[in-house]
Specification:
It contains 24 helices and 17 strands. With about 650 residues, the protein is of the alpha/beta class. The chain has three domains: about 1-85 and about 135-185, no CATH class; about 85-130 and about 205-255 and about 540-655, no CATH class; about 260-535, no CATH class. An eight-stranded parallel beta sheet has the order 12-11-10-9-8-13-16-17. A five-stranded mixed beta sheet has the order 3-7-4-5-6, sandwiched between helices. Helix 18 (about 395-405) runs parallel beside helix 19.
Length: about 650
């Protein structure tokens, strides 16, 4: 093709692409405008030049004279398309979690029958029938995007390019506007990690049922950073962290404490005027910085209202540091070891307890009931007292203290990072302390594990610190509270040699002049705060609350009718069945009314876990009607069983 004709086509492609991005992808469009403005103002100079070589385009780096392709970019695109295959073990992200499938009772009763049938009637060695979602790491000139799309015709593409100038040049050669007509396109162009996380999560949530094996293509010049960051997004999905069955059990637990007229603390009123808002408060968590500064804490404990996560109680008892308030959120029985490991519970005689209403009964039965105050996190059965949710007990306690009006807050042991020397996750005596390999942050693996992966994040006293993916969720939660919830009158000091928190003051321990702080009378403090909290509590179950619970029951029974109808359907094809399961998911989870929220979340987490297995199972040849009927039956039975358990729990209070 003549050069003039190529130039004409390139100019027209660029023009149509700009119109497309201006209309459909404004964030990318604005970045392109900003890049052009930077060039015009001399803030930075162009690094590449688009060249025509024979009948194809190439990109030359101006500083070195090297070429991006150094051969036919058209041939590269053809080879790239040939390299994409339908195997389940090549250039693929496994987004699912391996779950026990033998136990068809107990904790896995709702998922084991389906997964067991799938395992017995399929093999990973079978090729995929189609590829519905695909990821491009690196765009270059983008010609390979077109060729790969011709081959697989995916429904959704995630397109990632870190170099804004390279991406601009691809607008001359790749008709993104045409790709966007037949597929949904998500772009991450010149994104920071936080911006990329938003796009990656959108991609994972879009037609999530096709996520089981996510195929991708990576250009040779692409940076590995986004590849690993996407891995982190995959393993950080909520269904991998919070098992649906645990959520169901924990969402019913508050009803038990409501029946016993326990005290639920009002988070919506002002506690201004109490010591809680007048005196300095220090929040203690079990990160490495606690142990590193324990002597300072021993010397200055009388200067602060000490709020401690239950995970640090054994350390505090050993050092004779008495907490004024103890918080606990973990619902699992093993977490009660934080209390059971104490030499004597009399150590906590004067402490007040802020407990999630999901917690195990042991703590409630063995601590002073008059000192226990509940809060809801996730559920909202109690009316007009508020409920607070965050990623972990540390970030939740931080949010609670802000809500209760603490004006001067110090954070110690809330590192949310690893010990820089040892790789330890917590202080040495923490129940779940572990040591991770700090060198693994430099490597790239095809499979990352949520519990053992090491990544980097911004540091409080240094540029970067090592952390874990699960800690990133907590850091994001704290940052969200700091930016959206903290008042200007509230000051937060981050004392940790760990992660940086937004809208807090990075402060070294030695910079705090505690000589100016007065000593507190801790016994009087306990009596005062108990009186203040009790005054604002709700203990009896109101008619309004009973009515709301009955509405939740009615909604759940309506969902059961959808499920009962589903199990009676007969399907002519796999496509008809899979379409029906998507419709069922929407019916079960799309309602946004207050009575629908809890059960929608539970069913959504279950569905995200099991649907990818189902859709992958049917993404192969030789599917029988017997398989469709079997999967439809086990799936429907699981939905119905979960709804029945939910209704039974609600009725224990409403009847």
């Amino acid at each position: 093709m003549e050069h003039e004709k190529l130039e004409e086509i390139a100019a027209e492609t660029f023009h149509k692409n700009i119109q497309y991005f201006a209309q459909h992808h404004r964030a990318v469009y604005k970045k392109l405008l900003a890049f052009d403005e930077g060039i015009e103002q001399g803030l930075h100079s162009e690094r590449y030049k688009l060249l025509m070589v024979d009948d194809y385009f190439d990109i030359q780096e101006l500083s070195s004279g090297t070429y991006l392709y150094d051969s036919s970019s058209k041939e590269y695109a053809t080879l790239a398309a040939k390299s994409v295959n339908y195997r389940r073990d090549a250039n693929v992200f496994e987004t699912f979690k391996n779950l026990p499938i033998e136990a068809e009772t107990g904790h896995f009763i709702d998922i084991a029958p389906t997964l067991k049938y799938i395992k017995e009637n399929s093999s990973k060695s079978e090729t995929m029938k189609s590829i519905k979602k695909f990821i491009f790491f690196g765009v270059g000139l983008g010609l390979h995007l077109v060729e790969i799309d011709k081959k697989i015709d995916a429904d959704v593409y995630l397109i990632i390019e870190d170099d804004i100038e390279l991406f601009k040049l691809s607008l001359f050669t790749t008709p993104f506007y045409e790709l966007g007509e037949s597929s949904e396109l998500l772009f991450s162009v010149f994104d920071s990690n936080s911006e990329f996380d938003v796009v990656a999560n959108r991609f994972l949530n879009t037609k999530f049922y096709h996520n089981h094996y996510l195929k991708y293509f990576q250009t040779l010049n692409d940076n590995e950073e986004k590849l690993k960051e996407f891995h982190i997004r995959v393993i950080s999905q909520s269904q991998h962290i919070f098992f649906y069955k645990d959520i169901l059990t924990q969402y019913l637990k508050p009803l038990e404490y409501m029946k016993s007229d326990s005290k639920f603390l009002n988070m919506l009123v002002s506690y201004e005027g109490s010591s809680f808002t007048k005196k300095p408060v220090i929040l203690l968590a079990a990160g490495p910085s606690l142990q590193a500064n324990i002597e300072w804490l021993k010397e200055n404990q009388e200067k602060f209202i000490v709020v401690a996560l239950s995970s640090v109680l054994n350390i505090l008892e050993r050092e004779n540091i008495k907490p004024d308030i103890v918080t606990h959120m973990d619902a699992f029985e093993v977490a009660g070891e934080h209390f059971r490991k104490l030499n004597s519970l009399t150590f906590l005689d004067d402490a007040l307890f802020l407990f999630s209403s999901r917690i195990d009964n042991w703590m409630v039965d063995n601590l002073k009931k008059e000192n226990i105050f509940f809060y809801e996190n996730g559920t909202s059965y109690k009316q007009n007292v508020g409920n607070l949710s965050a990623a972990c007990v540390g970030s939740t306690t931080y949010l609670i203290l802000l809500a209760l009006g603490v004006s001067e807050l110090y954070l110690l042991g809330l590192d949310l990072a690893l010990n820089a020397k040892t790789g330890s996750t917590h202080s040495s005596e923490h129940l779940f302390n572990e040591k991770l390999d700090l060198e693994s942050v430099k490597s790239h693996d095809d499979v990352l594990e949520f519990g053992s992966t090491v990544v980097k994040t911004a540091g409080n006293f240094q540029k970067e610190v090592f952390t874990k993916p699960e800690y990133l969720l907590s850091i994001e939660s704290i940052n969200s509270s700091s930016m959206g919830f903290k008042k200007e009158s509230q000051t937060v000091y981050n004392l940790n040699n760990g992660a940086l928190f937004l809208n807090t003051i990075s402060t070294k321990i030695e910079a705090i002049n505690t000589k100016e702080f007065e000593n507190l009378n801790k016994k009087e403090l306990s009596k005062e705060l108990n009186k203040v909290f009790t005054k604002e509590c709700s203990s009896s179950t109101t008619e309004e609350e009973i009515r709301a619970i009955k509405e939740q029951i009615a909604h759940a029974r309506k969902l059961q009718e959808f499920v009962k109808a589903q199990v009676t359907y007969r399907f002519e094809s796999r496509g008809e069945f899979l379409g029906s399961t998507v419709m069922l998911f929407n019916r079960l989870t799309n309602a946004t009314t207050p009575e629908a929220y809890d059960i929608s979340l539970i069913l959504q987490e279950y569905t995200k876990l099991v649907y990818t297995f189902i859709f992958d199972f049917f993404n192969r040849d030789n599917i029988t009607n017997e398989s469709i009927e079997q999967i439809n039956r086990t799936l429907s039975e699981a939905f119905y069983r979960m709804l029945e358990e939910y209704i039974f729990g609600l009725e224990s209070v409403s009847v």
